[in-house]
Structure formats: structure tokens, C-alpha cells
Amino acid sequence: MSETVNVAEIFGENVFNDAVMRERLPKSVYKKLRKTIVEGTELDPGIADSVAQAMKEWAVERGATHYTHWFQPLTGVTAEKHDSFISAPDTTGKVMLEFSGKELVKGEPDASSFPSGGLRATFEARGYTAWDCTSPAFLKEDATGVTLCIPTAFCSYTGEALDKKTPLLRSMQAIDQQALRILRLFGNTTSKKVTPSVGPEQEYFLVDRAKYLQRKDLIYTGRTLFGAMPPKGQEMDDHYFGTIRERIGSFMNEVNKELWKLGVSAKTQHNEVAPAQHELAPIYAEANLAVDHNQMVMETLKKVAGRHGLACLLHEKPFAGVNGSGKHNNWSITTDDGINMLNPGETPHENIQFLLVLACILKAVDVHADLLRQSAADVGNDHRLGANEAPPAIISIFLGEQLEDVIDQLCSTGEATHSKQGGKLMTGVATLPDLDKDATDRNRTSPFAFTGNKFEFRMVGSADSISSPNVVLNTIVAEAFKEAADVLEKAEDFDLAVHDMIKEMLAAHKRIIFNGNGYSEAWVEEAEKRGLPNIKSMVDSIPALTTDKAVKLFEEFGVYTKAELESRAEIEYETYSKVINIEAKTMIDMAGKQFIPAVIKYTTQLAQSVNAVKSACPVADVSVQTELLTESSDLLSEAKVALANLVEIDNKACGMEEGRAQAVFYHDQVVPAMAALRAPIDKLEMIVDKELWPMPSYGDLIFEV
Ligand code: ADP
Ligand code: MG
Q1: Which atom in ligand 1 lies closest to the alpha carbon of residue 453?
Q2: Is the Cβ–Cβ distance between 336 and 191 less than 8 Å?
Q3: What digits encode the pLDDT tens for the residues 259-275?
């Protein structure tokens, strides 16, 4: 049994949160900082020293020796460079512990090694990190000791964003401003701020660490590049919501404790569909915090796994043929006084504000489906999107029966007169309670589903930062709000104008609504008829970043400049090429040094045994052995040829200049060459003696954790 925990007591104990600030900061300083955090007003630089002092004292009392600006460069993971609090020793050899306002507010990492996509040449290496007071500082406890982490934004000498946080904060400002305009139109004079809320559901796999270390593919690429399916896969559906085994349970227990201390509200945990797959969901938070917290969740899962003799795989597709992992991004927009603008209420047909918001979201998603799709693109996700387990690569919206019915009424007669209600669910058992039914069932196959009072964007990859999808969501919805407000603010008859506008928008963008089975072939055809984009790969998605439409959108709301968009596109192409190159090189290494030698050993032993039998008894029937020998020798030559081919094609790819053409070449040439090498080796795995096979199999990895 694990020790008991007092959750309420440990929750947030490692966070410099509001309660700590209120207690430790001078009143006037606290008030000013709070105003910036809550209302989004400009940060007063005069308070920095005082905040730094309090932060340092608090951190040192809790054992901190170092501080770091914690940021999110375009590598997709977080970065930190630790500095200790010590000053230079004085004449007596003693040191003081120091931390100034300047050190809190600004950092200057030598940033030339972070991806910048051409925004900065290496000789112009300066980059700055700037304190983001809207995400509280926290203490990280690990083998290095205790470190005070200050969430920061990271930008270049010339002010371009080099990270995932800056554009997110900019997009949050954009939706705040435009959503307030919508609220004011409906007579709301009290709400001061609108914030997107995000709850990301994180999926992951756990495998035994000792086995993980025997697989170079897992070590170098986070996924298996070879592997035959075990006799049992996920067909029994017996893992989903299954009893959590002891070893996994003790891992989850520690993860929760670590996260609670960091103020991450880890809430839900369960086994997922695939064997060895699990999920963790926090309670939703403001978008910026949710993005930071999700990074902490991913880091904590990995760190704690190591302590339990496990390895956590965050990759979108660690095992071919087994369900992959995603991250459902639940998104809504809420005012500072608690109004969720996505709440339809009991009778959505009468809720004009909600219908306008909904129409704006339909428009935003329809117009910018390509950008939304792009925001969920990463190399690993190419294995999921469009395969029969994850959302299709086509963006569509699921609204559910109730809302679809309201929209149908509006589109057909121009008036919506009623809303379908859920009614009661009768269990047929007297002792069981009758349940109130939701007005709408769920649809698991939709990439963008309305789930009661939020939208759930389900395309995001499990290993990816959730920043980009939220940047896109916030900005495209801000644009639709702006276009609506521009017209409605000038309308003479508001009621009439808003009514007409909703009808027009719904009619124009209805094609994005799809309530059917998103995994079916029929939908692919239907979507094509509707003119909805079906962007199948990451490489194909990247041009969406730099279209005139995208540049206009992001520049209008100050979220990205054209140069920033171009740099991001460039980084995505580079990332794609690098990842595939590492995968190809790993396959070459494993095939050449591990699989082929193992198969040679096997065929040699087999041939020797055939000869031995033959010489002992010349009339013995060795046809089965000979058949196996022929089969494995054929597969061996197929593998040899495929290996030589992959080496050649990958070399060619490496020799190309970085950019789109290279990424396209990796996608079109190298990826198929990798598949051609994998095929014979997976077949050989089914033939060759298990003792001779040089690494743990799929079965060993996913059923024996
Ligand atoms: P499900 O999607 O299975 O219904 P939940 O409703 O519990 O599960 O929510 C899944 C995630 O969505 C959780 O992280 C939850 O906190 C988050 N969530 C719930 N309501 C909202 C909301 N209004 N806005 C954003 N996220 C939300
Ligand atoms: Mg969900």
C-alpha cells in the first residue's frame, strides 16, 4: 500500500501562486501584479525587484539553490538553463544568495542553437526570455535539487517570437478583445475579460524500461520501427477502462502527487484502448496555463516512469497495428465573471448570443480548416490521422442532434422554434435511478466535436505541444467575431441584423457539419464533394501556414508576422526531414547490425541441422526445414536489397538542401523505402527462433509491463 496523501495540503505547494503572493508581497506590489495577471494590463517594471526578492526567499526556504527561465522553443519541448542564487564570494570567502528584478524579468540565453527558421543567423545569436507573470513560477524537484522555474516567453533580438508561448499570449489577447465586443452587443457591460479555457486529455504508453533499453528504435525515435503483431492485439477491448495493475497504479499515484504539488489539477486516469496505453486528464485551465501544465505533465510522466523501472512513450504511434495516442484539446471561452460563451443553455434555439458564437465558430473552422489541420500536424501524427482509429485528416464539426436540429430549422424556415430535449433514460431496474439524458449522444469519430459546453479538437498528437492548435483556434474565432462585430455594431435594427447574419453564416458554412461516421470511406467521398480539404500528411499541411489568407489573418491580430510564419514553416520542413532521417538511420543500423546477423545465424544453424540429419540418414524427409530455409533466405535477400536501397535513398536525401523539396523527398521516397525494409524483417521475426531474435517483441513490450 502506498502512503496516504492529503491532496488539499500538497496541492500547489511548489507554486508561487496567488495565496503565496498575497502573503509575501507588499500590498501595493501585490495589487499591481494581480491587475496585470487578471486584467491583462501592462506589467509595471517597478515591482520586479520586490517580486524577485519574495520569490527567492520563498524558493530558498523550500530548498531551492538555482533558478531558471523556463521556456518553450520551437523544438516542441521545454528549455531551461540553471543559475544558482550565489553571488561572488566576498573578501572573507562568503557568498550571498541573490536574485534581482532584472534577473526575474529578462534572461538572455545564448540562443543560437534553438530553431529559428532563418529568423536569426548564428552570428546574431541574441535571444531574450521575458517573464510571463500570468503563469506562476514553480519549484521543480529532481536529482539536480530544487530549482525555481520562471515561465517565460522567448524572442529574438528584433522581437520575433521564437517560441510557442508568445503567439499563444498574443492570440489570447485577440480573442479577448473580439469576444468582449460580441458580449457588449448583447448588453453585457460587466465582463472585463474573456479567456479561452483548455483541458487536454493526454494519452501515453508505458513499457518496461529494461526492454525499452534493448530497442534502439524506441531509444532514438520513440517508436518501434520494426515489429510483428503478437497473437493478441487490442481486439478483445479488455484493456479500455480495465483494472489498473499494481505497477501502473503506483506509477500513477506518484505522477499525481508530483503534479498536484505543481498545481496541476490531475483529475482523471484510466487504461486506454491499446494494451499498455493510458490516459491522464487535468481539470481545464486558462489556455496559457494549460499549455504550460501539459508540458509539465509530459515531463513528469517520463521522469516518474524512470523511477518505476518503466519508460513512458509519448509518441503518436509507438506500435504499428495498435492504436496510437492523441491529445483531445477541449476548448471553450469564458468571461472573468464565469460566463461560458459556449454554453447553449436548456433551449439553444432562444439563445441568440450562443447561436451567433456557434455560427462564428462554424465559419472560422470552415474558412481555416487547413490551418487547424496544420496545427495538429507533427511527424508522429502522420501515422494516425486518416487511419481508422483516429480522426480523419478531414476537418469537420460534430454538433449533435439538438444543435443540428436548431440549425436545420433556421436554415429551412428562417426561424427556430424549439430545441430537442434529452428526456429520461429508463434502466428497467427498479432499484436503479432513472437518469437525465443529454440532448445529444457522442460521436467518437469527429475531429472537432461539440461536447455540451466546449469543443473538443481531437486531432492533436500526444507528443506535441498544444500551443499551436490553441493559437489557431483563438485567432480564427477572433477573426469571425471581429467580422460579425464590425457589421453588427453599425446595425440599425440589431435583432434583425443578428438574425439575418446567423442565418447567412449557417447557410454558407453548413458544409463543415458532419454528424456521421468520420472513419468511413463514404465520408471521404462526401467531403470531397463538399469541397472540404483532405490534407493527408504533415508535409502537405505546411503550405497552409504561409497562404495569403493565413498571413492576413495572423498579421491582422498581431499573432504572427509574415516572417514568423515563414520561419515556422521552414522549421516544420526541417523537423520533418530530421525525424525521418533519424528513423531511416536507426533502421539501417538495426537491420545491418542486429536483424540480418541474427537471421544469418538462424539460417546457418538451420542449414547445418539439415546437413547433419542428411548425413546421419540420407533418406530422411527434411522438406519442412528446407522450405523454411528457402523462405528465410529469400526474405533475407529481400531485406539486404531493401537495406541497400534505403541507404542510397537516405544518402541522397541528406545531400539535399534543407527546405520543402527535401521534406517532400523524405516523405515520398525515404518513407516507402523504410516500409520496404520493415516488411521482410517483420516476416522473419515470425520465423526465426525467439532466442535468436535480438530484441523484445511487440508482445513482450505491450503485454508484459
Ligand atoms: P469527456 O470529454 O470524456 O466528457 P470531461 O468532460 O471530463 O470528459 O472533460 C475532458 C476534459 O475537458 C477535461 O480536461 C475537462 O476539464 C475539460 N473540460 C470540461 N469542461 C470544459 C470547458 N468548459 N472548457 C474547456 N475544457 C473543459
Ligand atoms: Mg473527451
Answers
A1: 23
A2: yes
A3: 999 999 999 999 888 88
Pocket test for ligand 1, best of 195, 284, 354 (most atoms within 8 A of CB): 284
Question: Which SS3 state, helix, strand or coil, does residue 132 take?
Answer: coil
Burial 233-251 (b: 16+ CB within 10 A, else e): bbeeeebbeeebeeebebb
**pLDDT value of residue 431:** 73
H or E element that contains 281:
strand 277-282
pLDDT digits 0-9 by tens, 340-362: 999 999 888 889 999 999 999 99
Contacts of 507 (CB under 8 A, 6+ apart): 411
Q: Are 399 and 509 in contact (CB under 8 A)?
A: no
> What span, in angstroms and rounded, lies between the C-alpha atoms of 526 and 101?
59
The residue among 443, 569, 415, 579 whose CA lies nearest residue 506 is 415
CA–CA dist 455, 330 (Å, integer): 6
What's the CA-to-centroid distance between 447 and ligand 1, angstroms?
A: 15
pLDDT at 4: 79
On the CB side of 209, CA atoms within 13 Å amount to 13
Q: Which ligand has the nearest atom to the CA of 457?
A: 2
Do residues 448 and 372 lie in contact, with contact meaning Cβ atoms separated by under 8 Å? yes
Ligand 1 center to residue 104 CA distance, Å? 34
Pocket of ligand 1 (CB under 6 A): 197-199, 201, 281-284, 330-332, 340, 451, 453-454, 456
**Phi and psi (nearest 5°) for 79?**
-130, 150
The 10 Å Cβ neighbour count of residue 254 is: 17
Tally Cβ neighbours within 10 Å of residue 1: 4
Angle between helices 467-488 and 287-307 (to 10 degrees): 170
Q: pTM for the whole thing?
A: 0.95
Closest residue by CA, ligand 1 atom 13: 199
Q: How far is the CA of 284 from the centre of ligand 1 (A)?
A: 6
